[in-house]
Amino acid sequence: MKVMQNTWPSWPAIGRLTAVITLLSAATLFVASHAQAQDDAARKILKAMSDYVTSQKTILVTFDTDIEVVTPELQKIQFASSGEVLLSRPDKLRATRTGGYADVQFVFDGRTFTVHDREHNVFAQSATAGSVDQLVQRLRNEFSVEAPGADLLLSRVYDNLIEDVLDAKYIGQGVIDGVECEHLAFRNHDTDWQIWVEVGARPIPRKYVITSKAVTGGPQYTLRIKNWTTDAQIGADTFAFKQPANAKKVEFKELAEIDEVPSGVITGATK
Question: Of residues 87 and 35, which shows the higher confidence score?
Fold first, then answer.
């Protein structure tokens, strides 16, 4: 008579299998918990930065920017500029940007927006009553002026930055221009972006990098804030456009050379 073999694993084997499953489950939970902690920390720091920035009525910053383009030969070229922004909430702005191909001044007094091409001494004006937020939106919609760094100064910084974010990570700490900063990284559908926030009682943005995932070669836009003050002296005519001698008024469409990237440069094909 043939004796049937017991095909069930022994109790020690079951114990080992249970231990493995438990360890795998614990590891999965740890990874998920760690990722959630990273996400929460990144959002908390970004929110603190945003709350601090929006609480400042007057902000004066100096900055450097780098913007990359990718040629049809897939060569990456970088263009650099420097500038200054003076913001008085909610409806006053004065900014300058100087690079190798453009020297431009922007002035907004709450009623009129002026762009002055200082290299060619021509300017254009538009009646634009409203806030700085509304002005930036109009520039983006009507004139295709993106000004990505403007998102750091608008009245709804956190909402604007966190919109469409798919993933948030607290990377750690870094040092920008000798200043200790918290390093955060975020992902959207079309871009990856990073921001470095000053550690301490003044959580201001120190560096901001946007990487395009929709353009071959992943070109980047980089903003580095050098100085940030909130006690700038503002006079009665600080935001008034002072027309230089012999300056010529033109239409906005005639301001051809005010971009950070010179005309004729191809930025690459989208994927």
Answer: 87
Contact call for residues 226 and 217 (beta carbons, < 8 A): no
**Strand arrangement of the beta sheet that strand 220-229 belongs to:** 167-176, 179-187, 191-198, 205-212, 220-229, 58-70, 76-88, 92-99, 103-108, 112-117, 122-127, 248-249
Residues in a beta bridge with 97: 83, 104
Comparing 6-10, 39-43, 84-88, 136-140, the range with the smallest average pLDDT is: 6-10
> Considering the domain boundaries, does residue 271 fall inside one?
no
- For every residue of 133-190, DSSP letters joined together read HHHHHHHHHHS----GGGGGTSTTHHHHHHTT--EEEEEEEEEETTEEEEEEEEE-SS
* Domain assignment of residue 183, yes or no: yes
Q: What angle do CA 145, 64, 186 make, to 5 degrees?
A: 70
CB 143 within 8 A of CB 6: no
Give the predicted TM-score (pTM) of the model: 0.83
Measured torsion, CA atoms of residues 108, 113, 115, 116, in degrees rounded to the nearest 10: -70
Residue 228 domain flag: yes
100 within domain boundaries: yes
Domain with 222 in it: what CATH number? 2.50.20.10
When divided into structural domains, the chain yields a total of 1
Phi-psi region of 218 (alpha: psi -120 to 50; beta: other; left: phi over 0): left
β-pairing verdict for 122-127 and 248-249: parallel
Is pLDDT above 80 for 34? no
Q: Which residues contact 209 (CB under 8 A, 6 or more apart)?
A: 193, 194, 195, 220, 221, 222, 223
Q: Is the pLDDT of residue 105 over 60?
A: yes
Domain carrying residue 160: 40-254
Closest CA to 112 of 243, 235, 256, 231: 243
